[in-house]
Design goal:
Elements lengths: L3 E8 L4 H12 L4 E7 L4 E6 L6 H10 L3 E2 L2 E8 L4 H12 L4 E7 L4 E6 L5 H10 L3 E4 L2 H5 L2 H37 L6 H17 L1 H12 L5 H21 L2 H5 L8 H25 L1 H9 L3 E6 L2 E6 L8 E4 L8 E7 L1 E4 L1 H4 L5 E3 L4 E2 L4 E2 L4 E7 L5 H14 L5 H29 L4 H15 L2 H21 L2 E3 L2 H7 L4 E5 H5 L5 E7 L5 H12 L5 H12 L7 E7 L3 E6 L2 E6 L1 H6 L9 H5 L2 E8 L2 E9 L6 H10 L3 E5 L4 H11 L3 E3 L7 H10 L4 E5 L5 H6 L2 E5 L12 E3 L6 H35 L3 H4 L5 H20 L13
Parallel strand pairs: 19-26, 19-28, 26-27, 28-29, 29-30
Antiparallel strand pairs: 1-3, 1-4, 2-3, 5-7, 5-8, 6-7, 9-10, 9-11, 11-17, 12-15, 12-17, 13-14, 13-16, 18-30, 20-25, 21-22, 22-23, 23-24, 24-25
Helix pairs in contact: 3-15, 6-7, 6-11, 7-9, 7-11, 8-9, 9-11, 9-16, 11-30, 12-14, 12-17, 14-17, 15-16, 15-17, 16-28, 16-30, 17-28, 17-30, 18-28, 20-21, 28-30
Length: 813
């Protein structure tokens, strides 16, 4: 067999020494015949034998050496999976494809997310899934728009309903033929068994044909899943009954009265189909959030081309196109208004019910609705780059991800079916050897019950259904959760750190006091401060510039602008050295500060002092008002048992004033931007699990340091990569909602896993006859079938309760 050649795009190389290190790390992997690195192309070429390492093993080796492999994500839609064992088989086959770094299969979403090196052929992934015994197709944006997955799911539901209807229609007379003569004590001839055979055969091989087909595919691939259990169980009952019908003398010769179990096989198939039909319909509802988000997008756009307006599919819009939007129409893509004015409903992003006025220069977002006038805008972000597309993709990734808690279920699922088959065989042997007469009948009944009651479906659906519904519910509320691991971490939080500016407060301070020092001129004080702050991007500086403009003051040009982050700014204005900043900073620069600002700080105002040529001119007080809902949010966080901490660069008096307004007791004040991450680490050192809430830009180091980073977005700027959780709406009340949602989702997952495990731990021994010695009771195979059918339905239904779960605060209007 010829050697395999893998090309890996390597991240993190900075010099020829790095290239040499990468080569050594790859060459040291067992099975690698040679490894060479092209530093310029940032690519490693690895030659390995047919049984050599795959891309994931090589990526791990690079990771240990301090480098990474650049991968791309491919989504594969899969049909035909029914249990956790199916997930294991598909993941194993996908991981074996050359170039695949990681494969994660979601049973509830019926899809796989594959991370692979660039160049992996999509058809190889599809073939890998087919080798596992399932059908697959690579998902593209076009297919998503066509909602092909929903079409496939609808067809599956219709097929299950049709097979169930046929099974139910034939099972009812079959059960009557079996039970009525026994109930009335009527002896019937052999014709009864032949009629039952005629009714049972289409039930098993038409209605239940998918079980046998799935079991055969598994046998071909030397694997087993839920189809195997059902096929073996019902097949054994049916086969035994056929022999008893066709050649009953075989049993009589052995001293056994022939009996048939057609009704058990038929009822099992029919009930399992009913359960699978209900399960598939319920799984469809877990993806309702994605469908509602996709429905927000426009299908067409009216574009100016060649001097006229033409309507084209939204997929054909290009950046730079001029798009006309009339009243009542959806904005098709993101862009900037260039003509006209209107009021646009942005509630789908911001949650604000009042339309926002849009004029030339303002941004508009795809999916929002134009309410009044017509306008023209220039497209800036189209396709996958739009805010709505980013949100949809984030929700897709989150719904397709796996929580760490699922590892236990995955581990058990890998051994589940073989263990159940072994238990069933052991049960048969024990009953046949030690059971009462007729021991063969008891052995078959208990073996079939064990095979049928075992349910790997519930194990496979316990986590992903809850993740899908939880992340979907969050998206509908403007809470974007990065992945399932974030949900799992967030439920353990016990401390929340809130950045003050723009999080607790509005983030747009205004000047409240202009107080010149005795003998100084008020207008000169404000003019000098505004002149220096014109070059500053700090919110306080912007407030001072706005205040000067309101009073008709035109600042003089400033030269030599210099900023001391967290302290102040200075520049030359009209030949004078003007400094604007904190009292401490000015004192350090030799200025005598003899004005008291404590009373202003007690009122929650920030005082900045202004000096010219080393002499104090006065102070300007600026206040940042508390954001609506902040006090309510803090109270809700306290009710969840969380310690709330405020972090700010303001002086302690100002910080304490704001903290008192919203009910926060612990405050870190005078914290410079680069010190915020250290404060988070300080809390973590106290044993706290910490979430940092900020704007996702200035607070990036602290967000990264925290156990969970929560970024409050602005609707159009979704900080997807900067945080673990993004709140699209600038509303602090989203934080307690997000944490409560995480806790509810994890509680649901635990409930699902508990009942899935408990069901199998209790059900399998009962089916094997554990109650026989103490109560003389055996579980009928059809009862086992009913229990199995509804176990997975109960798990999905329990997850769907998250859609209507009550959160600590109502959604913002």
């Amino acid at each position: 067999m010829s050697p395999r050649v893998l090309r890996l795009p390597v991240e993190g190389m900075h010099c020829a020494g790095c290239a040499s290190k990468v080569e050594s790390a790859l060459a040291a992997v067992p099975g690698v015949e040679s490894a060479s690195v092209n530093f310029a192309a940032e690519e490693a070429t690895v030659t390995a034998g047919s049984g050599g390492p795959d891309a994931a093993v090589l990526a791990d080796a690079l990771g240990r050496a301090g480098y990474g492999v650049r991968g791309e994500e491919i989504e594969v839609a899969i049909t035909g999976m029914h249990c956790a064992s199916c997930v294991q088989k598909v993941e194993r086959e996908l991981a074996a494809v050359a170039g695949v770094l990681e494969a994660t299969v979601n049973l509830a979403a019926e899809s796989a997310r594959v991370r692979a090196v660039p160049g992996v052929r999509q058809r190889d992934l599809v073939e890998a899934v087919r080798r596992a015994g399932y059908e697959a197709d690579v998902v593209t944006e076009a297919k998503r728009e066509d909602e092909s997955r929903e079409v496939a799911r609808s067809a599956e539901v219709a097929g299950l309903k049709r097979r169930f209807a046929v099974g139910a229609a034939l099972t009812v007379p079959l059960v009557l033929l079996d039970m009525v003569p026994h109930a009335l004590g009527i002896h019937v001839g052999g014709w009864n068994r032949w009629v039952q055979l005629a009714l049972a055969t289409p039930i098993l091989f038409y209605s239940g044909g998918t079980f046998f087909a799935g079991a055969w595919r598994g046998l071909q691939h030397r694997s087993a899943d839920m189809n195997t259990l059902i096929a073996v169980g019902t097949g054994a009952a049916y086969g035994y009954s056929v022999v008893a019908t066709v050649v009953p003398g075989v049993f009589r010769a052995a001293g056994i009265e022939p009996a048939v179990y057609y009704e058990s096989a038929a009822i099992i198939v029919t009930l399992v189909l009913l359960g699978r039909w209900m399960e598939t319909r319920a799984k469809g509802r877990t993806g309702a959030a994605i469908r509602s988000l996709l429905d927000l997008g426009a299908r067409t756009a009216r574009v100016r081309r060649g001097g006229r307006e033409v309507e084209i599919p939204v997929d054909e819009v290009q950046p730079g196109d001029e798009i006309v939007v009339r009243p009542g129409e959806k904005v098709p893509v993101d862009g900037v208004v260039i003509e006209g004015a209107s009021a646009v409903d942005e509630s789908m992003l911001t949650g604000e019910s009042m339309p926002i006025e849009k004029r030339p220069g303002d941004e508009v977002v795809g999916g929002t609705v134009n309410r009044t006038g017509a306008f023209v805008f220039r497209a800036t972000r189209v396709g996958a780059d739009t805010a709505l597309a980013q949100i949809v993709e984030l929700v897709r990734r989150a719904q397709g991800s796996k929580a760490p808690v699922q590892r236990l279920a995955d581990t058990i699922a890998a051994y589940f079916v073989p263990v159940v088959i072994a238990i069933a065989i052991l049960t048969f042997v024990v009953w046949f050897v030690f059971g009462p007469d007729p021991s063969l009948t008891y052995a078959i009944v208990t073996m079939v019950s064990v095979l049928i009651i075992a349910c790997p479906c519930a194990l496979g659906l316990a986590t992903p259904t809850a993740i899908m519904v939880g992340t979907g519910r969050g998206a509908e509320m403007g809470i974007l959760i990065k992945d399932a691991a974030v949900l799992e971490r967030a439920h353990a939080l016990n401390a929340i750190v809130l950045d003050k500016t723009g999080t607790i407060t509005r983030g747009r301070p205004e000047v409240t006091n202009v107080e010149p020092r005795e003998g100084e001129d008020r207008a000169e004080l404000l003019a000098h401060a505004a002149a220096v702050e014109t070059g500053s991007e700090h919110p306080v500086g912007e407030a001072i510039v706005r205040a000067a403009a309101r009073e008709g003051i035109v600042p003089a040009p400033a030269e030599g602008f210099r900023a001391a982050p967290g302290h102040g700014v200075e520049a030359r204005v009209d030949g004078r050295e003007v400094a604007v900043g904190s009292a401490r900073w000015l004192v350090e620069r030799g200025v005598m500060v003899d004005m008291d600002a404590d009373r202003l700080s007690e009122e929650g105002k920030t005082a900045v002092f202004v000096a010219a040529d080393g002499r104090l001119l006065g102070l300007i007080a600026v206040a940042d008002t508390v954001q609506e809902g902040s006090e309510e949010a803090v109270a809700a966080l306290h009710s969840l048992g969380l310690e709330v901490v405020m972090l700010t660069g303001d002086d302690p008096l100002t910080a304490e004033a704001i903290a008192r307004q919203v009910g926060i007791e612990r405050v870190f004040a005078r914290v410079l931007p680069e010190q915020k991450a250290a404060k988070v680490a300080e809390l973590q050192a106290e044993g706290m699990v910490v979430a940092m809430v900020g704007d996702g830009i200035n607070d990036a180091p602290a967000l990264a340091k925290a156990d969970i980073g929560i970024a409050i977005g602005t609707g159009t700027d979704v900080a997807i990569e900067a945080s673990d959780i993004t709140l699209i709406r600038a509303d602090l009340r989203g934080v307690p909602r997000a944490i409560a949602l995480s806790r509810m989702t994890m509680r649901t997952i635990r409930q699902n896993l508990f009942w899935a495990f408990a069901y199998n731990v209790v059900g399998i021994p009962i089916a094997a006859g554990a109650l026989w010695p103490v109560a003389g009771v055996l579980l009928a195979p059809w009862v086992a079938g009913a229990a199995m059918a509804f176990s997975s339905v109960s798990v999905v239904t329990n997850s769907l309760r998250l859609r209507k779960a009550r959160l600590p605060l109502p959604e913002a209007a």
